[in-house]
Design a protein that fits this description.
The strands form 2 sheets. Strands 2, 5, 6, 7, 8 and 9 form a 6-stranded mixed β-sheet that branches. The longest helix is centred in the C-terminal third of the chain and has 22 residues. Helix 5 links the parallel strand 6 and strand 7. The protein is an alpha+beta fold. It is globular, with a radius of gyration of 16 Å. The protein has 6 helices and 9 strands, in the order βααααβββββαβββα. 41% of the residues lie in helices and 23% in strands. Helix 2 crosses helix 3 and helix 2 packs across helix 5.
């Protein structure tokens, strides 16, 4: 079980505090990119800069869809919506904000909208698998409910292509987690040299 001190900052309680707290370690999004040479360069180049993301219709659709998809995950898997940045109890540099967390902390959820139906979690992009495994490491959870909704463009608007999302369960992978921990330590060393 997570302890209360592991809940670092909530988006709902303070977006700027949540963004600032993300700079105290390596998040799931950062390690998902930073585990590859090209992604590593991108993370190193942007880590200390201001968070200035160009919004796209696809991103807006995903952001707008996440609340009802999180409630769908709660109804079907009993995973509560989450917006807290969480810190690993034994590795203070390891951070993540899973989209959901079960009351017993054995399950997390991750929600995506996509322009392509992956069919099953076996076919989701490797970056998302890394992101999920880091979240499992940070939280100590054993499973992730991975939820995805296909989007379509109709008359210039992004809309759901399905009435409800697809979902599957991803199991904790200790081998991948160990690889990510090594990559995160190396990435943090470079970040500390360049930005602190």
């Amino acid at each position: 079980m997570l302890n209360p001190t592991q809940f670092v900052a909530s988006k709902a309680l303070g977006d700027s505090e949540w963004l600032a707290a993300r700079r105290t370690g390596i998040t799931a999004t950062q390690i998902a990119k930073g585990a590859t040479p090209s992604g590593r360069k991108e993370v190193l180049a942007s880590y200390w800069s201001e968070f200035d993301v160009v919004d796209t219709p696809q991103m807006a659709f995903g952001r707008d869809s996440e609340p009802w998809l999180a409630m769908w995950a709660k109804e079907h898997y009993q995973v509560m919506p989450n917006d807290w940045l969480i810190r690993n109890a034994g590795d203070p540099l390891a951070l993540a904000t899973p989209d959901g967390l079960s009351l017993d902390h054995t399950f997390i959820s991750e929600i995506k909208t996509t322009g392509k139906d992956w069919g099953s979690v076996d076919k989701i992009p490797i970056g998302y698998k890394r992101q999920v495994q880091w979240q499992l490491y940070v939280t100590g959870a054993e499973y992730c409910v991975f939820v995805w909704l296909l989007r379509a463009e109709v008359d210039g608007l992004m809309v759901p292509a399905w009435y409800e999302p697809k979902s599957d369960v991803i199991v904790r992978d200790e081998d991948m987690i160990e690889d990510l921990k090594v990559a995160a330590d190396s990435l943090w060393s470079e970040l500390s040299e360049g930005g602190m």
